[in-house]
TrEMBL record:
Keyword terms of this UniProt record: Membrane
Keyword Hydrolase carried by entry: no
Entry annotated with the keyword Lipid metabolism: no
Cell location: Membrane
CDD domains recorded: SPFH_prohibitin
Xref: InterPro entries: Band_7, Band_7/SPFH_dom_sf, Prohibitin
Protein name in the entry: Prohibitin family protein
Residues in Band domain copies: 9-171
Membrane topology according to the record: Single-pass membrane protein
SUPFAM superfamilies reported in the protein's UniProt record: Band 7/SPFH domain
Amino acid sequence: MPLVAALLSSCTVVRQGEVGVRRRFGQVDKQVVYAGAKVFNPLISTIIKVPTTTQNLEIRSNLPSKEGLTVGSEISILYRVQGAEVPNMLENVGLQYADVLLLPVFRSAAADVCARYYAKDMHSAERAAIERAIREQMSVTLEKRGFVIENVLLKNIVLPGGLAKAIEDKLEAEQDAQRMEFLKQRETKDAERRVIEAEGQQRIAIVRAEGERQAAVLRAQGQAEAMRIEADAVRTTNRLISQGLTKEVLRYKGIEAFRELSKSQNTKTIISGGDTPILNTLAQ
């Protein structure tokens, strides 16, 4: 009997990042099998393994726009399956859940959301808002079915030829306008800088001239003060000298002067006014 049981048994390994569900006689077991080695009887049962890690579903789709145009796009739908909901998902949807459930829900949500936006919005900063709106609308339907929609990414947007050319022309015109505005602002700033420099030079010249004027005034005042002091000193000196020059002093100074002249070797005749002696000295 043990040998028969061994021959009638089989083993499988449920890896991390996936869950297993046992199916007996076509009935799905509600109990989820987690990571590890699992033994089952292949004659009456099997273990279905479903990944619970993030999956990337890539599709190509034509998206409608508000003005009735068709916009081509490559889309990535990032999703994962909730492990506890796998038995219900297998029972109600099956393993082909991507084609049976995810794609139809995406196409419905994308058509509903994109029809509210213009085609050019899918090629601009509005793309993020469109992606978010599609993801939220898909989540309303799919979360209760055991799926978590992590993100919806619109890639490689292909606009209609005429619209693409018009957008390119508009972008080029906007860039030219921005370039001209930049040049205008730069020229304005250069002109303002030159005006500020001229005003600065003018202020410097005014300050320099005012400084030179004040210096000249100070020099003139200093010179006038010096002359006044010198004149006062001369007057004071003369006054002091005048006060000390009596008749006796002057007479004495005259005699000394004649005496010094008499010592000269040259012949001379000096006639005084009568207050001093008369000297008649001949050279020896």
